[in-house]
Amino acid sequence: MSSLLASADDVLRRAAWTTRSAEVRSSLVRLAACLMAFALWYGAVMGAFRGLTGQDQWLRQMIYSAMKVPLLLTASFALGLPSFFVLSTLFGLRRDFAESVRALVAAQAGLAIVLAALSPLTLLWYASSVDYQQALLFNGAMFATASVAAQYLLRAYYRPLLQRDPRHRRMLACWALIYILVAIQLAWLLRPFIGSPNADVQFLRPEAWDNAYVKVGQLIWRAVGR
Question: Is the alpha carbon torsion for 174, 179, 184, 186 positive or negative?
């Protein structure tokens, strides 16, 4: 545990092992370990809503959610990576691809670390409110907060690449667009992360392939319009 926390501190501080060109492969393993561990922790906390609101099958929901958050982050990354590779090649930045990928993984690890740091607030919210819709929106706010922090971290990791070639700025914008589009739809596919009240716990819902953007808009409209 102490080594994991030390690695998390290194990621946020951009320690030497996270940026050395000669250590790309070994650093990727440590970054991926941080990503998986802290995403798993927040997933378990996210799925604790049923337990804190006195519902049954809460342990199963926690296990499912603990599996889904790492899956969401890693699958969104993996699905967006081929497009990122092609665009890197088209922009003439393929020589920096390995370092770019490490910067992206570091940002993903940072996102998971920030989520884990926000998990006490999520538990406090669950203990203060039993409203399912508000729990959904609160977790959305936590993911948005962590994503903003991850973007700042990504720009810090990308600074040497930007100094080497300003065209990397375009790649940052392209990656943000690709990742957001993929992650939103994938999050909708993998729901429920919290578990609807008085509904049986299931890994995926039957209507998983609905359009995420339409449904999220409807959710926000219902919450704001009450």
Answer: positive
Cβ neighbour number for residue 192 with a 10 Å cutoff: 22
CA-based nearest residue to 90, from 196, 202, 171, 176: 171
Name the nearest CA neighbour of 114 among 83, 154, 143, 89: 143
Instruction: State the DSSP code for 47.
Output: T
* pLDDT reported for residue 80: 96
Give the Cα separation of 63 and 224 in Å (integer). Answer: 31
Integer angstrom CA distances of residue 127 from 59, 120, 173: 17, 11, 38
3-class SS of residue 193: coil
Buried b (16+ CB within 10 A) or exposed e, 14-41: beeebbeeeeeeebbebbbebbbbbbbb
Residues 39 and 110 sit within 8 Å (Cβ to Cβ): no
What the block records as the tokens of 40 is 């798993």
Please list the rounded mean pLDDT of every run of 10 residues in the chain (226 residues). Answer: 89 91 84 96 96 87 96 97 96 93 96 98 94 93 96 95 94 94 90 84 76 74 70
Output the CA torsion sign for 169, 144, 68, 106. positive
Q: Residue 197's pLDDT is what? A: 81
